Amino acid sequence: MPAFERRPGLHLSYELDDFTDLWLHRPFLVLQHGNGRSSKFWYRWTPYLSRHFKIIRPDMRGLGRSTGQLDLQSDFTLDLLIGDLLAVMGHAGAETVHFCGESMGGILGLALAALHPDRVQTLTLVSTPVFIEQQMKERYALGHGSRIKAMEEMGVREWVAKTTSTTRLPAEEEPGLFEWYVDEFSKGDPEVQIAMSKLVNHSNAQSFLKDIEAPVLGLYPTGGQITSNTQEQLLKDNLKNLEILHLPTAYHMVQLLYPKACTNALIEFCARHNGAAVVDK
Q: What are the backbone angles phi and psi of residue 153, rounded to the nearest 5°?
């Protein structure tokens, strides 16, 4: 796992998965995890994609193995997280990338594609909201007044178990996956997760949409609870080149529930837009 010093006291870490043929020039693909998660949450995708792309899986600052001294009030901003992404890409030697982000990771992708269009060949959004609607803020508050208070008063593990069972993953469908998700999420620093949640609650990517030139693929649930029809309509109305594939679930984590369908769609999409796919024999 490569790591480097972003600034004194802060180290960024990422995974590099590359099983492409050594004699071929294959494109880089960034897989950016969402709020409170880490690079590990892409584990169901890497077997399908690592023959086609040089995969960069960053850990956001304060999560996974990206650790250091962080000011919870000032070190979690959209600009700083975009700067981290550019630093990771530079460290990995990636001038341009296909970018795929899930949920909050997709919000970062929208900002990156708008602000640095020369660095993003294609953009894939996985269950990415443009902003968090009021009804979802209320649902995630679980009667505690706000999502942040709920996380603080209940503890991260209890909060994520309750909210995941209703919005992210069906607990009964794959109990092992559900328990793994809750366990892995709960390993994160609670204060960092709360700081990230504050950032997500106040983020709105709508202003970036009209500046995005890269082709965009959306992988979304059907009747999503976090990504509503209103959210999808904003993407359709404002993005220049958008395709959307709906997966047959209302749960948010489509990348974990349908890894093969999602990765097949991504490979085919990228192959049509500046990235040749490997023909497996």
A: -80, -35
